[in-house]
Amino acid sequence: MFSPPAKKSGISARRNAFDRREEVSTPLADSRRPLLDSPAVINRPATGTPAPWASRLSVLARIPPAKKSDRGDEADSVQPVYVGEFPQEVRDAQIMSSQNRVPADTSTSGGMDKATSLAWIVCGNKLFIWNHLIASASRKCIILDLDSVTSENGEMGKGCSQNNNWLVCFVNWHSSKKTGSKGTQQSSSTGIVMCNKKTRTVVFWPDIYNANVVPPLSCVASSEFEATYLRQNGQSMLSKQRQNDKFGNNFGKLGSVNSLIASAIPSATHSCIALACSSDGQIWRFLCTPTGIEPNKIEHGMSSTFSPGVDSSQIVTSKGYPRSLIWHTFNHSSNDTTRQFLLLTNHEIQCFTLKLSAEFNVSELWSHEIVGSDGDLGIQKDLAGQKKIWPLDMDIDADGRVITVLVAIFCKDRVTSSSYTEYSLLTMQYKSGVDIAKPLGEIILEKKAPIQVVVPKARVEDEEFLFSMRLKVGGKPAGSAIILSGDGTATVSHYWRSSTKLYQFDLPHDAGKVLDASVFPSLDDSEDGAWVVLTEKAGVWAIPERAVILGGVEPPERSLSRKGSSNDRSLQDERRNFPVAGNIAPRRASSEVWDADDRQRAGLTGVSRRSPQDEESEGLLSQLFHDFLLSGQVDGALDKLKNSRAFEREGETNVFTRISKSIVDTLAKHWTTTRGPEIALSLASAQLVEKQQKHQKFLQFLALSKCHEELCSRQRESMQTIMEHGEKLAGMIQMRELQNTISHESTSGLGSSYGSDAQTSGALWDLIQLVGERARRNTVLLMDRDNAEVFYSKVSDLEEVFRCLERQLEYIISEDMPAPVQFHRVCELSSACVMLFHAAFQYKSEYHLWYPPPEGLTPWYSKTVVWNGLWSVASFMLQLLNETNRLDGSEKFDFYSNLELLSEVLLESYSNAITAKAERKEDPRTLLEEYWTRRDALLDALYNQVKSFVEAKLQDSAEENKEQHNDTLMTLSSKLLSIAKRHEAYRTVWSICCDLDDSELLQNLMHESMGPKGGFSCYVFKQLYESKQLSKLMRLGEEFPDELATFLKLHPDLLWLHEVFLHQFSSASETLHALSLSKDDSAVSIVEGTEATGTRRQLSLASRKHFLNLAKISAMAARDVGYELKVRRIDADLNILQLQEKILTLLPDEEKQSIGEKLLPPIDLIELCLRIQHPELSLRAFDLFLWTSASFLRNNSSLLEDCWRNAANQDNWGELYRRSITEGWSDERTIEELKETVLFQASSKCYGPDAETFDGIGFNEVLPLRLESPDDPDSKYANSSVEAILMQHKDYPEAGKLMLFALMVGSEWGASSAPPSAMDYEGSSSPMK
User: Fold this and answer.
1) What's the CA gap between 1240 and 1308, in Å, rounded?
2) Strand order in 202-205's β-sheet?
3) DSSP secondary-structure letter at 413?
4) Average pLDDT score over the chain
5) pTM for the predicted model, two decimal places
6) Which phi and psi angles does 1250 have, rounded to 5°?
7) Mean pLDDT calculated for residue range 219-245
8) Helical H segments across 1248-1317, by residue range
9) DSSP string, 1305-1324
10) Distances 221 to 326, 403, 869 between C-alpha atoms, Å
11) Contact 660, 721 (CB under 8 A)
């Protein structure tokens, strides 16, 4: 139907059209005969395209021309891609069937299983199974004989041959174990469950890989099925049906089986549960074990399957429901003891849970009506024009949250009275907050989006055709679905920008039907790949994502079947039209208009495509380079390329980069593996050498045409990429040689292969297979190529080697392998990685003049994926270090050498990446931390291994000789020492120097590793400091004064010694003063084991006083300008420390322990003085204000007011006042009594003639002694004086005069004049008046 239009040929495509016609994609062996090689069909050659028919236009047009070109993976094709031939055994069976003249109406069964990547097809009485992802040459086909499955009456085989309509489910018994990459290696044990749709015959093979040893089991339908059916309809029908045909025919009146699913039982060996639903409303459960098959009908929850009022007679002639059974994909693992499955009925979706143990009970979890009166919950029925609604099939996404249902609606237009069918996709999702494992609530599902109409007005099909349609979701483009029809078409539906685009895969009738569809599974649990379809006679084809997006059309016709298709014509018509057709693919007339405007199509689909200007520039560059290869001339090339704007693109889109990439990624034109791996791999070596020569010619072309200068100045990244292509090509050549060497060693017995074939075994070979497999799946145009061929051809994607090592190392080296094999295989991988780096470094050294300025450019071998892959191998080798005792001496050293070389290239990769980040002014801190961590882990492990080597070697010696020990250690650690120096691994360098006890080597290394932060010297000083070798540190520092000064800035407890030694007493005083007041979390590093314990020393109060006294002595020794103020400040800090010591003596033991030796700030000390309520401490609180700065006094005025309130509370002023009245105190007696009060002493201390503060700021400027406006106590100045504070005291109304007198006398006490009398104070204005 919706076959895509043919792609317009570009400039390069037209130029190379002749070459493409001469190429052969995959030559066939002479012994391989095409399927339809008979006199009825002429002109069918024995070689050529892998498709099993002659060069018929309608099929060959679907093999894109770019598929046969050197750049097939980049071709802008909208055609499906032929990716896999049937195994030869299938072809032979098909030929045999055609010769036996099998009836034309005989159906063919086949399918594809995504989980196991196995494809199957039934031909004759044999079931053929193969892995469709493995290349044809290395593919193995399993053949199961259905005739061997006999029933009790010996007639089952006959039934199988007469009714070839099977459903097949694969059961992977070891799905939880990682035995190989998905699809690249077949499972070691897989079973299958088969069910015939018509006869309901059930067959179980416990292990298809040992089918000759483990026989199949069968379930005879004539017993259990008949009995159950007859119990529902009366015994009178039993005798009548048994009088019918002997086998199978008595089930013709029963509904056919619509769906079959199976799941392994975790607690049992080679046992599974299979579920089947039939169109007569029944669901069956089959317990399949190696001893037999036990069928049971599931009764629970089936009452809702049918509409109310349906009697038993209607069940026999049911309308095809339930339609579909699928397993729920939500977080399922092979060890789960329960599984959920979904059931599609004629009006709802039902969800059940199945226990995979004990009684294998089935219980309903929920149901959701999708066809009802509420359109918000699904599809609204009984609308105008609707006649009938058929839910046809459903599927669920990989996350288990979105369910898609294919729906057909029979409608009648009330205006024209014409009937039509509307095909739609209904997408339902779990409501937000619903737990899929344990859903609760009445409504579980909701619409994800409005109903997506696939074909709005399709022709009316019969019900048999509707029920033959199947739906699958999950392929690319994301969100697309594929619809399979019973007459052999596959239509991909993709909803894009509010419209549905359809792409239909439809082959000619002699190519057979589309049997099934699947998707290329992901290799690393990411998104699945493109759609892949299995045909009846034409092998396996893929539908690229690009083909769906660019080739998708809006539905131009009213059908999802082959009726009306351009392929629905006879072979004679095709032959008659062949000479006129040319190279244009057949397609329907209504889709011809889609080819009219190629650029408009790209705009509508939203896919960015290369502009004609880019294609023209690339074509011009290709032509100029081709002329250079022929003539060696480059006349005017630079100007022509400039005029074509070839220098405007940067990076991968640059035309020079694309040409370079096409050179190194050229696919072999005549690659074949039918003659064995030796011939194929030798072809790979020759092809790589040819590519290298051609790439060097390209560099010469760039130099002679002066394009090289233009690229280096304007497009450095593009030129860098071109040179990296040469590096990768050199590395690929070296890898091929390494593989050849390993193969020879394995053949001669020198290696340790973990496989049967030396040429195709070993860790490197497995790595090549995994990388090649990933490239094949990402580019469906390469699916018919061998993995090794793809690997050695896709040179520019060499980073994929490291991506594979990062994500799939467990597939290459599994835990089940013996330890020696693991050692050998990881060393293979390590050697390959190191070899790739060395080849790149050597190439760069040889062609260094060709490279652009490197500032800010990150080499390919310093990208994240590369160092992560290297670290994956290195970390695995670190794990194996603990098991090296299983190896002999030489093997241990070889393993160490491999790890040492791998560590070197890994650290070099990090170093280049960090440098590039710094040059681009990006923040490299995260990368640096990762680099340091991995560097230390690797080098520490390597040095420990070196020391073990030295100990083992000295144990063989009779005498212990220190000189021999040092010589051996120096010899074995010389390479490691060089790596550590290069990457500033100072811990390793220090350990080596200490173990050698070589001070001369230490000093030499300190001179060599001098940096802006002291380099290795500072690290040495730190180690000496932590080991309390302070004298050695200071002596060594004399040789490195600048580095010592840098180090001592971080260690003031040593800095003052150095300053005193240099007679810098003033600086020493400042250092000591700052040291004494430093906080505990940033003071001085402890002298013993700072890094080991991760703690810091807490300076005691005595030590701080000691440092303050030393600071005072140093200041007095310096006698510089202002030293007196320094001494006063030091004395004040000494007083504060002494006060803290006194306060601690008055605190409870528990609080004293919590404070310990911690230095408390002045605020905390003042608050403690106020809280303790001790007269002396209340007075000392004012001293703290005197001993601090003026800013502290200003910023804590409220705290100062609290101190005055506390001072007033320390004496009983009411009692003093009463005594003064009773005893009749004189002025002298009053002053003597008041001198003992805290208020008097505080006033004298803060406001007296001898009061002294720093910075010349007095208490009067912060808190005046008297009210400035005594006549107005409510003014704004009322609370800004000591007098105002005292007025708030409880005794002020009675003893206020006495309190103020004490305050005023205290502020003047100590002056030369006599203190004022009480009479003098009474004459003044006072609140007491």
Assistant:
1) 10
2) 166-172, 190-196, 202-205, 217-219
3) -
4) 77
5) 0.71
6) -95, 5
7) 41
8) 1282-1286, 1292-1308
9) HHHHTTSSSPPPPHHHHHTS
10) 23, 33, 55
11) yes
Of the ranges 231-245, 586-600, 959-973, which one carries the lowest mean pLDDT score?
586-600
Distance CA 163, CA 245 (A): 14
Pairing between strand 118-123 and 126-131? antiparallel
Q: Classify residue 1094 as exposed, middle or buried by CB count within 10 Å of its CB (0-12, 13-18, 19+).
A: exposed
Query: What is the sign of the dihedral through the CA atoms of 995, 996, 997 and 1003?
Result: negative
How far is 120 from 90, CA to CA, in rounded Å? 10
Burial grade of 1328 (CB within 10 A; 0-12, 13-18, 19 or more): middle
CB 1302 within 8 A of CB 1237: yes
**Region 492-505 average pLDDT:** 84
Q: Which residue has the tokens 């007269």?
A: 1175
Using CA atoms, how far apart are residues 80 and 77, in angstroms rounded to an integer?
8
- pLDDT by residue (tens digit) across 382-411? 787 788 899 999 999 988 889 999 999 998
- Three-class DSSP labels, 977-993: HHHHHHCCCHHHHHHHH
Taking residues 1125-1142, report their average pLDDT: 88
* Tally of CB atoms within 10 A around 606: 9
Q: How many CB atoms lie within 10 A of CB 54?
A: 18
- The 3-state DSSP class for residue 275 equals strand
Q: Which residues pair with 491 in a beta bridge?
A: 483, 504
pLDDT score for 1097: 61
Residue linked to tokens 């520092």: 1037
Residues in the chain: 1329
3-state SS assignment for residue 346:
coil
Which pLDDT belongs to residue 1064?
Answer: 86
Q: Compute φ and ψ for 127, nearest 5 degrees.
A: -105, 120
CA distances from 498 to 405, 452, 551, 593, 676 (A): 19, 9, 17, 21, 52
Per-residue pLDDT band for 272 (boundaries 50, 70, 90) equals very high
Residues 1242 and 1248: their CA atoms lie apart, in Å, by 9
Looking up tokens 């089991």 gives: 217
Per the model's pLDDT, the better-predicted residue between 726 and 755 turns out to be: 726
Amino acid, single-letter form, for residue 1151: E
Q: What is the pLDDT of residue 834?
A: 96
Read off the amino acid at residue 1126: K
Beta-sheet strands, E only, within 441-546 = 445-447, 452-458, 470-473, 481-484, 490-496, 499-505, 514-519, 531-535, 540-543
CA distance 516 to 503: 16
Rounded Cα–Cα distance for residues 473 and 1190 (Å): 77
- Phi and psi of 755, rounded to 5°? -170, -175
Q: Which pair of structure tokens corresponds to residue 740?
A: 């050849």
Element (H, E) at 289: strand 283-289
CB atoms within 10 A of CB 299: 10
CA 226 to chain centre: 54
CB atoms < 10 A from the CB of 14, how many?
Answer: 11
Q: What percent of the chain has pLDDT over 70?
A: 75
pLDDT at 496: 76
Sequence-distant (≥ 6) Cβ neighbours of residue 574 within 8 angstroms? 56, 57, 58, 508
Place of tokens 């790589």: 688
pLDDT above 90 coverage of the chain, percent? 25
Q: Is the pLDDT of residue 1319 over 50?
A: no
Res 613 pLDDT > 60: yes
Cis peptide leading into residue 1052 (ω within 30°): no
**Residue 587 half-sphere exposure, CB side, CA atoms within 13 Å?**
26
* Residue range 131-177, pLDDT digits in tens: 888 776 667 899 998 877 754 434 444 444 445 789 999 998 876 44
Residue range 295-307, pLDDT digits in tens: 888 875 444 333 3
Structure tokens at 35: 């399927």
d(CA 692, CA 145): 51
Tokens of 843: 């190439």
Q: Strands 126-131 and 490-496, how do they pair?
A: unpaired
Residue pair 294/364 in contact by the 8 Å Cβ criterion: no
Q: Who contacts 619 (Cβ-Cβ below 8 Å, separation ≥6)? A: 10, 11, 12, 15
